[in-house]
């Protein structure tokens, strides 16, 4: 559990600089440059992610069960993941209406992903992993919306074509995960089959 906690603190800490220390982040980028900042950020993120994956894998060997979710929660979780994956893809498809309307679909995707996994999983490691990401995404979304208001950010209206592309790609990714991708990547079938 120590590796998981260390990885989460580092990963979420690195990804929280805009939430808790935006001024420091801006000054540091001005001092060392954008490319060195991105390089250090990427190195720290990858190292922390490796710790999270390693720690979560270790924690799964000796699970501390906090609750047992009803079987139906797996189906609800799978449905929520369809939403999460559409939001994730909408982050990267330019000109789509989802991003135009919601402004920060990546953070919303993480929220839905975390809630979906908390509904279906009840170990201490799951609570730490998904609960930690949920708390980070809630704070991150709030912080991003505050920055938008402070800067007077205006988002271009979305178009139907890119919106349909985002939905189609998100649903295709969801189908790939449900039909074996999740079991292949994580050793667990999302529907328990």
Alpha-carbon distance between the two ends: 28 Å
Q: What is the 3D shape? A: globular
Which structural class do you get from the secondary structure elements? mainly alpha
Rg over C-alpha atoms, rounded to the nearest angstrom: 18 Å
Spell out the key features of this protein.
single chain, 193 residues, mainly alpha, 2 domains, 9 helices, globular
Describe the structure.
By secondary structure, this protein is an all-alpha fold. It has two domains: 62 residues; 129 residues, no CATH class. It is 79% helix and 0% strand. The chain contains nine helices and no strands. It is globular and about 45 Å long. The chain starts with a helix and ends in a 7-residue tail after the last helix.
Protein topology:
Blueprint: H1 2-14, H2 17-20, H3 22-32, H4 34-61, H5 72-90, H6 97-102, H7 105-120, H8 124-151, H9 160-186
Helix pairs in contact: 1-4, 1-8, 3-4, 5-7, 5-9, 7-8
Quick overview:
This protein is mainly alpha-helical. The chain contains nine helices and no strands.
